[in-house]
Amino acid sequence: MPNLQAPTAAGSAPGLARALELGLTEFEYGLIVEKLGRPPAQVELACFSLLWSEHCSYKHSKKLLRSLPSEGPALVMGPGENAGAVDVGDGLVCAFKVESHNHPSAVEPFQGAATGVGGILRDVFAVGARPIAVLDSLRFGEATSPRSRYLLDRAVAGIGHYGNSIGVPTVGGEVYFEGPYEQNCLINAMCLGLAPRERLIRAAAAGVGNALILFGASTGRDGIGGASVLASAELGVDDAAKRPSVQIGDPFEEKKLLECSLELLDRELLVALQDLGAAGLTSSAAEMASKGEVGVDVHVDRVPLREPGLEPFEIMVSESQERMLCVAVPERVAEVLAVCERWETRATVIGEVTDSGHMRVLCDGEVVGDMPVPALVDDCPLYDLDPQSPVAQLYPAPVRTLHTEEPREVLLALLSSSNLASRRPLFEQYDCVVQSRTVRRPEQSDAAVLVLDPSAVAAAPDAPAPALAISIDANGRRVACDPYGGTVEAVLECAANLACAGAEPLGLTNCLNFGNPEKPHIAWQLTESIRGLGDACRALGVPVVGGNVSLYNEGGQGPIYPTPVVGMVGRLPDARRAGGLGFAADGDEIALVGPFAPDLHGSELAKLAGAELPLGLPEFDLDAVRAAIAAVRDAVRAGSLASAHDVAEGGLAVALAECALAGGRGATVSVDPERPTPGHRKALPALFGESPGGFVVSGSPAALAALTARTRVVTLGRVGGDALSIDAGETRVTVELAALRQATGALAALFA
Amino acid sequence: MKFGVVRFPGSCDEVDAQLAAARVGEAVLLWHADRDLQGVDAVIVPGGFSYGDYLRAGAIARFAPVMDAVAEFARDGGLVLGICNGFQVCCEAGLLPGALLPNTGLRFVCRQVQLEVVNASTPFTAGCAEGERLSIPVKHTTGRYYAPAPLLDAMSERGQIVLRYAPGENPNGSIQDVAGVCNEAGNVFGLMPHPEHAVDALTGSADGLALFASMASAAGPRPLARA
């Protein structure tokens, strides 16, 4: 039994009923009492309820996540730190992570999305990396729904507000509209940062007697209990009342905090650094102590407050934004405070590192909480899931919106559908050029491309310019059809996008957005999806460097589509050879490359046609897809292709249209309908069917022929003219570029 | 030729401007709290969100100590380039005529736009030809240039309208498609587009480099105080 100092000033213990209100179970409460040897005081219960919440403890997913591969030649820092990191060469490492801010955004989309960006930025600069890019992955209900349009409008504004104001470019992302996200939108933000290898810092507190310094914004009542109240429970009818649980962001404060943190690290003034995110000071202090296997004393009366009268437990769990916690040796404290003052960032010594192994919370010299650090951080019970595969599809068929099979009309309907139309009205609200690294902007290539060193580019215009390529992907509907296969597809799509830019994957991060894992079918989705994620990563040799899990994504109408969002970072040796998706020159030959096996099940066309979601997707040859990805990557980085584009949602015809629009050039092609079906229907699978492993590339006949040694190549036609003309057996589709452009501009209406 | 790029809390494009200027000369950062301009030959007030753009874009930055020195430098005929937020700051500081209002679309817009050089005889555009088109990105929420009609006519007559958005390219509703203006003396120039983000074809366009190159050739030794 641990020897714990009973709090002297906390009054009576709040008891089991309060614990249940805070989201703990009776079993968990009993375990806490056992760990403490007495019922927890108010501060202690608040700390436990947050750190033992799903959001902080991963108690329903941790066992599954251990199956993911986290080793690789480029890996520098794996799961468990604020952000994972990979070696990108030239003495630099890239730290990156994706995180969700779903429930706050469903309640208050502008601040929810903005602080989602703010939080992921802090995760990255907390390890000492300067954030160089943000990407986002968004899901809303159908665009016909006023609520979805409101959430979209405000979430996009919030992302832009934060990213633009802080000087980090938003270089890519994805957004889809599907009925099951109507109540529970998804806002996932990914950030990556760069650091000289020696500047990376871990979050482990060390050195008994060292000072614990809180710096950044003051602490208020915003976001009290966000991790347990919002992030670890299903959404319900009284969500408007939860608005006080949503944090308010201040990007200006964070910009100062960012510059200040990096200067502190450059001057080597810190022993450890940690951001304050979910569960605020409780989580940061406990995590730091846990990693360093030390104790900490936190004096809550020294914490600068935004308003008077906060209770000690409120100070400990507040999720006020733009705060960091660092550890410094006593002799360096004055210098730390001086750097903070120069950046007009408030800094306060609020405690010290101890050898007790406990986190003690003190207020005016009295102990109001005393908890063993391992009990807080490591001893939350982990649960086994009870997965059961469903015998019927869990999700209703989408509402039918397309009533024709005439291929030209189908193509235009797909291009103007909310899932495929140009994302320009969104990404134009984001600064994509600040920091002078952006070589490929949205819609120029399948992946964003950023040079590692802009000053080297200026100094040596002819030298190779090493660069990173980044992609973020997920397809919830396909994962709903087949949690294993759909997740494998998402990983492959990311790798395919990187290949089209010429980049080889170095590492992967993920955000697993699922419903309530205590329900057997959701448990099955999660289990199968993680199995697919692991298999795909092992097949590609890409380590999972970290990630985030967001569960309980359910509204009154049921769970969201299972949505494992995958973010991948790769390297290409020379940005001057970065691939583009647009057709580049009239007369270039066009080919379909890879083991593409189009199928309409689970496709965008099936959605528009209102088809039931199948249980299972067609199997495919993973090795053949991997070979095609490698062949395209090598050809792009050799500079032998004029364009390369992954065939994704909407199939081959939509991919061709996207290449034509991006290049401002038409094309004349013929595709081979293989299915023995009558009339126009015969052409539909070939034109609009989907599958992994397809690329549309263009270039010289010799360059395309060279690919045949490594993968399947089907010559389609040639670039030229001002229309896209597709011959598919008995069917011919001809659409002028202007008509394509008008169709794909459909999203502008959502922002009118 | 030595450029000084001001760094306010909340500046975002100061390092970009420094990198761009370094392609044609030397470039240093100037801290907002210092009055010392370190003997620079030209000053760039960069883009970003100085002081969070709280109150009104540029309204707080104009009171930064460094801006006293910049104003004095401008009075003495030194070259001052205000980009985006820097343009807003120069207008707030009275170094440039007119004001920047919220975009008509009320949204942030980031877009590569075509500009037309209206006056190629300023120290900032001498390397361009009149009527030349420049491809340079804009990215702002508060970029709609406004000046009262009589002032605008007078400015136009005096050659103070330096850049316009090409027909159909105006991203923010600026009056008469004005994208960049200079003061009467011609030594202070502000524009909403970001020439520092158009200095290399690799990152989209090299058309903005002409502005920095023009400044480098024009600045030479710093002129003495005006008579």
- Alpha carbon gyration radius of chain A: 26 Å
Write the CATH architecture name of the domain at 202-377 in chain A: Alpha-Beta Complex
Say what the CATH topology of chain B is.
Rossmann fold
Low-confidence stretches of chain B: 222-227
Domain count of chain B: the total is: 1
Order of strands in the sheet with the most strands of chain A?
8-10-7-11-9-12-13
Spans where pLDDT lies below 50 across 5 or more residues of chain A: none
Which topology of the domain at 202-377 in chain A does CATH recognise?
Answer: Phosphoribosyl-aminoimidazole Synthetase, Chain A, domain 2
Q: What would you call the shape of chain B?
A: globular
* Secondary-structure-derived class of chain B: alpha/beta
Structural category of chain A? alpha+beta
How many β-strands of chain A, per DSSP?
28
By CATH's scheme, which homologous superfamily of the domain at 202-377 in chain A applies? PurM-like C-terminal domain
Helix content, binned percent of chain B: 10-25%
Order of helices and strands of chain B: EHEEHEHEEEEHEEEH
Quaternary structure of the protein: heterodimer
Instruction: Considering residues with a beta carbon less than 8 A from a beta carbon on another chain, report the largest interface and each chain's count.
Output: A-B, 39 and 33 residues
Describe this structure in words.
- The complex is a heterodimer of chains A (752) and B (227).
- Chain A has 752 residues and is an alpha+beta fold.
- Among the domains of chain A are: 176 residues, Phosphoribosyl-aminoimidazole Synthetase, Chain A, domain 2; 166 residues, PurM-like C-terminal domain (Phosphoribosyl-aminoimidazole Synthetase, Chain A, domain 2).
- Helix content of chain A is 34%, strand content 23%.
- Chain A has 26 helices and 28 strands.
- In chain A, the strands form five sheets. A seven-stranded mixed beta sheet of chain A has the order 8-10-7-11-9-12-13.
- The mean pLDDT of chain A is 93.
- With 227 residues, chain B is an alpha/beta fold.
- Chain B has one domain: Class I glutamine amidotransferase (GATase) domain (Rossmann fold), CATH 3.40.50.880.
- Chain B is 21% helix and 26% strand.
- Chain B has five helices and eleven strands; from the N terminus they run βαββαβαββββαβββα.
- In chain B, the strands form two sheets. Chain B has a nine-stranded mixed beta sheet, with helices on both faces. In chain B, strands 5-8 form a two-stranded antiparallel sheet.
- Chain B starts with a strand and ends in an 8-residue tail after the last helix.
- The C terminus of chain B is likely disordered.
- Chains A and B meet through helix 8, helix 10 and helix 17 of A and helix 1 and strand 6 of B.
